[in-house]
Specification:
Blueprint (H helix, E strand, L loop, with lengths): L9 H10 L25 H4 L1 H4 L18 E4 L41 E7 L14 H11 L3 E6 L5 E7 L1 H15 L3 E8 L3 H5 L4 H10 L2 E3 L15 E8 L1 H18 L2 E6 L7 H5 L4 H10 L2 E3 L30 E6 H21 L1 E6 L16 H8 L1 E4 L8 E6 L4 H13 L2 E5 L12 H14 L2 H9 L1 E4 L2 E2 L2 E2 L2 E5 L2 H16 L6 E4 L6 H16 L1 E4 L10 E5 L18 H23 L4 E7 L5 H11 L13 E5 L2 E7 H23 L4 E5 L5 H5 L4 H10 L2 E5 L2 E5 L2 H19 L1 E7 L5 H5 L4 H10 L2 E3 L11 H7 L13 E7 H20 L2 E8 L3 H5 L4 H10 L2 E3 L11 E8 L1 H19 L1 E7 L5 H5 L4 H9 L6 H4 L3 E2 L9 E7 H19 L2 E6 L2 H8 L4 H10 L2 E3 L9 E6 L1 H14 L5 E7 H8 L3 H10 L2 E3 ...
Antiparallel strand pairs: 1-2, 2-4, 3-4, 5-7, 6-7, 8-10, 9-10, 11-13, 12-13, 14-18, 15-18, 16-17, 19-21, 20-21, 22-24, 23-24, 25-27, 26-27, 28-30, 29-30, 31-33, 32-33, 34-36, 35-36, 37-39, 38-39, 40-43, 41-43, 42-44, 44-46, 45-46
C-alpha cells in the first residue's frame, strides 16, 4: 500500500487514496437486435467483476474490503453509450475509482442504433431492501415501470446475490427508469467523499448555487463540514470529508460531480501571506509596482499587494538609527497569490525571502510635525502614497491620536534623509490662519466655546464645511475638546484661497448668531428615535433642523438650528446675511416651539429600563431576526421607540422604555423557549409527493424560493424525484407541507406566454430598476422574464457544468422574446397589459432633438418650470431638458423630445419658434427720468401692457414681465431695460420716448365742478370719465368722494385741455334749483324707500337733496308677527301652507314735527313737473293710511307674489291702490310691506294670499 507524504499536495493524496484497492469492473452489454458476436475467451460475471466474487489475485473467495462502502458496482458501457467505450457514470463510492473499459473484444463492431441506448448498473445485495420491506416483488415493480416508461427495463439477480439492472431506450428515459427502480428497492446509504479544503468554496458555488444544482440533479443530499475558525485560511492542502446521503444511483451521481469539481480546482492555489508586515508592502511591490510586475512575469502567478495605509499601523518600538522590528499585520489586508500550485509556492518563497532581507535592511526616523498638517503630506490634500514612495523610496506612518505629532519615515539608510525632507516640505509649505468664530458673539448664552461647538457641529452635518473646503481648496479645522469648541484653523497652499474661505466663513457666522441655536439635553437612548422619526417632523412643522449627536459624541446635547420652511428642501442654501429683527423674533419663537415639542414627546415616554436574558449562542441568529421583525417600523405603534438590543457572549441586553422592554423580553423568552422545544423535534421527518414538473418553481432561482420557505417555516426542505422531504419540528413541518401543496395547486393552473417584442422597447417596459415589471408581477402573481445578454464565464462555471450533466438542454430565449409564466388568468392579464404598453411605446417612440444655447434654457423653462409644463401639456410630448449647470452659457445643449409623430412635430416647431425669437432677442436700455416711470407703468401696469402689445409683444403677462424692467425706487440711475425681438424693442422705445416727449409738453388746468356733478362725470365703473379722456386725449383727475373739493384737474396738450375744459363746464355746470318744503311726518310715506326719488331722476331728470338736513326715520311696528298665532311649518300639508301667514296692520302716524327741504335741481320745465308730482304725492300721503306686514310660512312661495318679471305684484298694486314692497331676502323672515288705506291693505293681502294658493296648486299639479 502506498504511503502518503506529508509534503504531498491534496490532489496527490486524493489520487493515492483513489488508487488504493482499486478494482476495475467491466461488462459487455450486447445489442439483442444484432447477431451474437463470437469470443475466443468466455466472459463470466466473476471475471468481469472481481469485487463480486474473487479476490485481488483472481482467486475465488471473499473480496478484500474496499476503503469505503460500495453502493453500486458498474454502469456497462456500450458503443451507443460513450464514443470511446468508457463508462459514462462512476462506480463505487469512496474508496474505489471510476470504471475503466477492458480491451476491446474481437469480432464485429457494435452498431450504434439511434434511439436505442443501453444503461446498466450492478447493485450489491447489501444495498437492496429485504423482500419483506418491499411493497411488491422486484419483477412486478419492473413491469409497472415498463408500462409507463419509453425505455425497456430488466432486472436480473447474479449468482453473487447482486442485482443487475439494465434499461434500453432513449438515454434520458433509460436513466430515469433505472432511477425509479432504485428509488423503490434501494436502501439509504451515506458516503464520504474527501476533497481538498481549497475546493470547498467551488463546490458551494455563488450563493450555494453549485451544491444545490448537484443535489437537484442527482437526488442525493450533500452535507459540507463546517468551517473550522481555528484552522488557518491558507492551509489548502488539508482534506475535508463531504457527506453524501442517498441510494445507489443518486449517491454515485453526486459523488462523481463532487470529484470532478475537486479535480478541476485542486491544481490551482490561492494563498494569503499573513507573516509579511504591512510596512514592507511598498518595498515588495517596488516603485510603480515594478518589482511586483517582474515577480508575476517570472513565476506566472497573480500577486496582489495591498496599498500602503499610513494611518493603519502601530509604531515600531526602537530608537533613532536602530533597526526596528516590523510585526506581521493584524488586519485582513494581506498579500495574496493565485495560480498554479507549484508557481504559487515558488512566488511565496521569493516574497518571504525578500521580506526577511528588508527586515534586516530597513531603518526608521521620527520627526515632529503638527498633527493638523499630517493630512497635507499624504492623502487628498497631499500626494498619493505611491507617489511619495516613488520619489523617496520610503514609506511614512502617521499617528491616529490627535495629541501625537510624531511622524515616522521608514526606508533604507541612504533614503531616509530624502524621505524626511519630502515629508517636512509637504507639511510645512502651507499658509495658515486662525479664526475665532465667536469674536462677534462673546456674550452668547452658554458661553463662546459652546457657541463655537454648536455651529461647528451644525455646519459639519450640513456638509457646509466640506463645500467650503472643496470650493477654496483649503482645509478647515473645527476642533472640539472636552465638549467645548475652539478657534478654527484654515490651511491651504495659497494664501488668497485662505482669505476667500475666511471671508465666506465670516459671512456664514454672521448669518447664524447664537439666537439661531438652542440645545436640548436628551438621553442617548432617544437619539436614534430623534434622528429617524422626530427630525423630519420638526423640520417640516417648525422649520428647525436637529443635529443629533453621533455615537462617539453621545454625551453632547442635541442642537436645534432655525432654518425656516425652506430648510426641508434639497436646494436649501446656508444663509450668509445678518438676520433682521423680524427674523430674530421668528428664530426665538420657532426654537421655543420645537424645543417644547421635543421635550413633550420625551416626557411622555416611560422610564428607561435594562433587562438581560441568557440565550445559548446557537439561538442568537434566529432571535436576532425575531427581534428585528418585532421592532419593524411597520408593526410597532406610532411614537413607540424601538428597544436597543446588544449581545455579549450568551447575554442579551435590552435597554428601552419599561413597557417596551418588558414586552419584548417576554416575547423573546417565549421565542427561545419554543426554539428549545423545537430543537427536540429537529429529527422529525415528513415526506410527501410533489409534482416533479413544478420542482424548479419550488426551488427558485439559485434556490431563492426554497431558502425563503426554509427561513419562513424553520424546517429543512429537500426536493428530489417528485418527493419533498421536510425535517424539523412536526407542527412547523405540517404548516410547511400545507403551504407547499397549496403552491403546487396554484402552479397546476400555470400557463406560459411568449411575446415577440422588439428589444429596443425592453428597457422602458422593465422600468427604472425593474419597477414596471415588479409592479406587474406583484399585481398578477406571475413571473416575467426578459432576455439577458450572455454573462462572462466565472471560475465556478466548470463545477456548475459538472453538476448539470444530467440536465436537459433548455431552449434559448430569443432576444425579442418576453416570457410570462403564472396562473392562466394572471398571465393573460399581464400579457394584455404588456402588449398595451408595447403598443403605446411604439406609437410614442418618435423622437427629435433641438439644439439650443445653454443661456436660453431659463426662458424655455419659465419660472418654476411653468413655461415648460405648459409646453408639455399643450403638445402632450415628453420633453427632457439637460440640467448640467456647469455648461458654459454659449454652449449648445440638446433638448430631447419624445412622443407620437404629431406631438414631436408640434413640440419641435414651438421650441424652434422660441429659439428663433431668442436668437433675435436684443437688450437695450433707455434713459428716462424717474418722474415719468409711474406714468409709463400706468394704473396696475395697464399702460405698460398697452405699450408692449401695441408694439407686437405677447399678451401673456408672465412673458411681458421680461420685456420692460424699471429700476427700483431706491436704486441709482434712470435706465429702463427693454428686452425682446429687435422690431418689438424698437417700437417700445419709440413709444416710450414719444409718450415722455408728449407728457413733457403737456399743461394742466383745474376747473371747479359742483360736487354733485362728480358722480355723473365718473359714470358707472368710470365709463364716463374714460370716454371723456379718450375723446379729448387728456387725463382727468377728479377729487375723491367726501373730500369736499370741487377742483377737477385736466392734463394734456394745450388745445386738448381747452376743448375738454369747455365741454366739461358746459355739460356739468351747476343747474338752477328750487326748494320745496315737505312736512317731515310725510317724508317717509312720499319717499317710499327711495322709489319716489328714482322716479323723479328717471322720469323728470331732476335730482333731490336735502341741503344737509337729516331725513326722518321710518317708523317700525312693535312686532310684525302678532296676528294669527304661530306660522305653520313648511313641512305641513301643502294646502295649509298656502293659507298659512302672519299679518299685522298698523296706522301710519308719524310724530315728526316741522318741514324738511327738498332741493330740486334740473331744467326749469322739469322742476315744475317734479313739483306737481310731489304735490300729488303729498296730497295722497295726507290721507289716512296704514302699513300692513305680511309674512308667508314658506319662503319659496314669495315668487308667486312677484310673478314673472314682476307682473303679479304690479297687478296687485293696481287693483288695491297700495304700494307693495316684497323683501329680497325671504329666508330672513322679513315681511311683505303694504302701504295704503286700511281697506286697500286688506285687499292687497287677500290678493297676495290668492296668488300664493294658485302658485302652490299649480306646483302640486306638476
Amino acid at each position: 500500500m502506498a504511503t502518503t507524504s506529508e509534503s504531498s499536495s491534496a490532489a496527490e493524496r486524493l489520487l493515492q487514496q483513489h488508487t488504493q484497492d482499486h478494482h476495475v469492473t467491466v461488462e459487455d452489454a450486447p445489442d439483442e437486435d444484432l447477431a451474437p458476436k463470437k469470443s475466443s475467451t468466455p466472459v463470466n460475471y466473476e471475471d468481469a467483476f472481481p469485487s463480486l466474487g474473487a479476490n485481488g489475485n483472481g482467486q475465488k473467495g471473499k473480496a478484500k474490503e474496499p476503503a469505503g462502502p460500495s453502493i453500486w458496482m458498474a454502469k456497462v458501457p456500450t458503443a451507443a453509450n460513450t464514443p470511446n467505450g468508457t463508462s459514462r457514470a462512476s462506480t463505487p463510492a469512496s474508496g474505489t475509482g471510476p470504471a475503466v473499459a477492458g480491451p476491446p473484444a474481437s469480432g464485429p463492431k457494435n452498431v450504434n442504433i439511434p434511439g436505442r441506448h443501453v444503461e446498466s448498473v450492478v447493485i450489491e445485495s447489501q444495498y437492496i431492501m429485504p423482500r419483506n420491506q418491499l411493497k411488491r416483488p422486484i419483477p412486478d415493480l419492473v413491469k409497472d415501470i415498463n408500462r409507463k416508461s419509453r425505455a425497456v427495463l430488466s432486472a436480473t439477480f447474479l449468482s453473487s446475490g447482486h442485482l443487475k439492472v439494465e434499461a434500453v431506450g432513449p438515454q434520458d428515459k433509460a436513466q430515469q427508469a433505472i432511477r425509479e427502480l432504485v428509488n423503490v428497492i434501494g436502501t439509504k446509504s451515506t458516503v464520504k467523499v474527501p476533497i481538498p479544503r481549497s475546493a470547498r468554496a467551488h463546490l458551494i458555488g455563488k450563493g450555494g448555487a453549485t451544491i444545490k444544482s448537484i443535489q437537484e440533479k442527482s437526488g442525493a443530499r450533500i452535507q459540507l463540514p463546517k468551517t473550522d475558525d481555528n484552522q488557518a485560511d491558507d492551509d489548502e492542502d488539508a482534506l475535508v470529508d463531504v457527506i453524501v446521503e442517498g441510494n445507489a444511483v443518486t449517491a454515485a451521481v453526486a459523488r462523481d460531480a463532487i470529484r470532478k469539481i475537486a479535480g478541476d480546482h485542486s491544481a490551482s492555489a490561492n494563498l494569503k501571506l499573513k507573516s509579511i508586515p504591512a510596512e514592507i508592502y511598498p518595498f515588495i511591490a517596488g516603485p510603480n509596482n515594478s518589482s511586483l510586475s517582474a515577480l508575476e512575469a517570472e513565476h506566472g502567478v497573480q500577486v496582489r499587494v495591498p496599498s500602503h495605509e499610513p494611518w493603519a499601523h502601530p509604531f515600531p518600538q526602537a530608537l533613532n538609527g536602530e533597526r526596528p522590528f516590523f510585526a506581521p499585520t493584524n488586519s485582513d489586508n494581506f498579500i495574496s497569490l493565485a495560480g498554479e500550485r507549484a508557481a504559487v509556492t515558488a512566488a511565496r518563497a521569493a516574497i518571504e525571502k525578500r521580506a526577511q532581507e528588508l527586515q534586516n535592511q530597513l531603518l526608521w526616523e521620527q520627526n515632529t510635525v503638527p498633527f493638523d498638517r499630517h493630512q497635507f503630506v499624504i492623502g487628498e490634500r497631499g500626494i498619493p502614497t505611491e507617489e511619495f514612495f516613488a520619489e523617496t523610496n520610503c514609506v511614512i506612518l502617521f499617528p491616529s491620536d490627535p495629541t501625537v505629532d510624531l511622524v515616522t519615515v521608514i526606508g533604507l539608510k541612504d533614503d531616509l534623509a530624502r524621505g524626511s525632507e519630502k515629508a517636512a516640505e509637504l507639511a510645512m509649505n502651507l499658509n495658515t490662519s486662525s479664526y475665532d468664530v465667536s469674536r462677534d458673539h462673546k456674550h452668547a448664552q452658554g458661553g463662546a466655546p459652546v457657541y463655537m461647538r454648536d455651529i461647528a457641529r451644525y455646519l459639519r452635518q450640513r456638509k457646509e464645511i466640506e463645500r467650503l473646503e472643496k470650493l477654496h481648496q483649503v482645509h478647515i479645522s473645527t476642533p472640539i475638546t472636552d465638549a467645548m469648541g475652539l478657534p478654527w484653523g484654515l490651511f491651504g497652499r495659497e494664501g488668497k484661497n485662505i482669505l476667500k474661505a475666511q471671508k465666506e466663513v465670516k459671512s456664514i457666522v454672521g448669518g447664524h448668531p447664537p439666537s439661531r441655536f438652542a440645545t436640548v439635553s436628551v438621553d442617548p437612548f432617544f437619539h436614534a428615535y430623534l434622528r429617524t422619526d422626530i427630525k423630519p417632523q420638526v423640520q417640516s412643522d417648525y422649520g428647525v433642523h436637529i443635529v443629533v449627536p453621533e455615537a462617539a459624541e453621545s454625551q453632547l446635547p442635541v442642537v436645534l438650528v432655525f432654518e425656516g420652511q425652506s430648510g426641508a428642501e434639497d436646494t436649501y442654501q446656508i444663509p450668509q446675511a445678518a438676520p433682521t429683527a423680524q427674523e430674530l423674533s421668528a428664530f426665538k419663537q420657532g426654537l421655543a416651539d420645537a424645543r417644547k415639542h421635543i421635550l413633550d414627546l420625551i416626557s411622555k415616554q416611560e422610564e428607561i429600563k435594562v433587562k438581560t436574558l441568557e440565550v445559548p449562542t446557537k439561538f442568537h441568529e434566529k432571535l436576532r431576526k425575531f427581534i428585528k421583525k418585532e421592532q419593524d417600523a411597520t408593526t410597532r405603534k406610532a411614537g413607540e421607540i424601538p428597544v436597543r438590543v446588544s449581545v455579549r457572549g450568551t447575554t442579551i441586553t435590552m435597554r428601552g422604555t419599561a413597557s417596551a422592554v418588558e414586552s419584548l423580553a417576554e416575547k423573546a423568552e417565549a421565542f427561545v423557549a419554543q426554539e428549545k422545544e423545537d430543537e427536540k423535534e429537529r429529527g422529525f421527518t415528513m415526506k410527501f409527493d410533489f409534482p416533479q414538473k413544478h420542482a424548479n418553481h419550488l426551488i427558485g432561482k439559485s434556490g431563492s424560493h426554497i431558502n425563503e420557505l426554509r427561513e419562513k417555516f424553520d424546517v429543512d426542505i429537500q426536493v428530489q424525484n417528485g418527493e419533498v422531504e421536510l425535517k424539523g419540528p412536526k407542527a412547523k413541518a405540517e404548516r410547511a407541507k400545507a403551504h407547499i401543496l397549496s403552491l403546487a395547486k396554484t402552479w397546476a393552473d400555470e400557463t406560459t406566454h411568449t411575446l415577440k417584442i422588439e428589444p429596443k422597447y425592453h428597457r422602458e417596459l422593465i422600468g427604472a430598476s425593474g419597477a414596471q415589471i415588479t409592479r406587474l408581477q406583484d399585481r398578477y402573481k406571475v413571473h416575467i422574464n426578459f432576455p439577458r445578454s450572455a454573462r462572462p464565464a466565472k471560475d465556478d462555471e466548470p463545477a456548475a457544468d459538472a453538476a448539470s450533466e444530467v440536465a436537459k438542454p433548455q431552449r434559448q430565449q430569443g432576444p425579442d422574446e418576453v416570457v410570462i409564466r403564472g396562473p392562466k388568468k394572471g398571465a393573460d392579464e399581464a400579457r394584455d397589459e404588456i402588449f398595451s404598453l408595447y403598443s403605446y411605446l411604439k406609437e410614442h417612440s418618435n423622437a427629435a432633438v433641438v439644439s439650443v444655447q445653454q443661456k436660453q434654457l431659463p426662458s424655455l423653462i419659465g419660472a418654476g418650470g411653468s413655461a415648460m409644463d405648459e409646453l408639455r401639456q399643450k403638445t402632450g410630448a415628453k420633453i427632457d431638458i439637460p440640467n448640467d449647470r456647469n455648461t458654459p452659457a454659449d454652449a449648445l445643449v440638446e433638448i430631447q423630445i419624445k412622443g407620437t409623430k404629431a406631438q414631436v412635430a408640434e413640440a419641435k416647431k414651438l421650441i424652434e419658434e422660441k429659439k428663433a425669437v431668442f436668437d433675435d432677442t436684443i437688450t437695450t436700455t433707455v434713459d428716462i427720468d424717474k418722474k415719468w416711470h409711474k406714468i409709463l407703468i400706468g394704473p396696475g401696469g395697464s399702460t405698460l401692457r398697452d405699450i408692449i402689445t401695441k408694439a407686437g409683444g405677447p399678451d401673456d403677462r408672465r412673458l411681458q414681465n421680461r420685456y420692460i424692467q424699471f429700476p427700483k425706487q431706491d436704486a441709482d440711475g434712470n435706465a429702463i431695460k427693454v428686452e425682446g425681438r429687435k422690431d418689438v424693442v424698437d417700437k417700445i422705445i419709440a413709444t416710450i420716448e414719444s409718450m415722455v416727449s408728449e407728457r413733457a409738453s403737456q399743461v394742466s388746468e383745474t376747473i371747479d365742478v359742483p360736487i354733485e356733478k362728480h358722480r355723473s362725470m365718473i359714470g358707472r365703473g368710470g365709463d364716463a370719465k374714460r370716454k371723456l379722456e379718450s375723446e379729448f386725449s387728456v387725463s382727468i383727475d377728479i377729487p375723491r368722494q367726501g373730500s369736499g373739493q370741487t377742483g377737477v384737474k385736466i392734463t394734456g396738450k394745450p388745445d386738448d385741455v381747452s376743448k375738454a375744459k369747455e365741454h366739461i363746464l358746459s355739460s356739468f355746470k351747476e343747474e338752477p334749483s328750487e326748494t320745496v318744503q315737505v312736512p317731515r311726518k310725510y317724508h317717509s310715506a312720499i319717499a317710499n324707500n327711495g322709489q319716489f326719488f328714482r322716479r323723479l331722476r328717471n322720469d323728470f331728470k331732476v335730482t333731490v337733496d336735502h341741503a344737509g338736513h337729516s331725513t326722518p326715520g321710518k317708523s317700525k311696528p312693535a312686532s310684525s308677527r302678532v296676528s294669527n298665532g304661530a306660522t305653520p311649518l313648511i313641512t305641513d300639508d301643502p294646502e295649509e301652507v298656502a293659507d298659512a301667514h302672519s299679518w299685522n296692520i298698523v296706522d301710519n302716524a308719524s310724530t315728526e314735527e316741522g318741514d324738511i327741504p327738498w332741493v330740486l335741481k334740473g331744467a326749469a320745465e322739469n322742476v315744475e313737473r317734479a313739483k306737481e308730482a310731489i304735490s300729488k304725492a303729498l296730497e295722497q300721503a295726507q290721507k289716512p293710511s296704514a302699513t300692513g306686514y305680511l309674512i308667508l310660512a314658506d319662503p319659496s312661495t314669495y315668487r308667486y307674489v312677484i310673478g314673472q318679471g314682476g307682473s303679479k305684484v304690479n297687478a296687485i298694486r293696481k287693483q288695491s291702490g297700495c304700494q307693495i314692497q316684497v323683501p329680497k331676502d325671504q329666508a330672513s323672515d322679513e315681511a311683505i310691506e303694504i302701504v295704503g288705506t286700511r281697506e286697500g291693505c286688506e285687499k292687497a293681502k287677500d290678493l297676495i294670499l290668492e296668488a300664493v294658493r294658485e302658485g302652490v296648486a299649480s306646483r302640486n299639479r306638476d
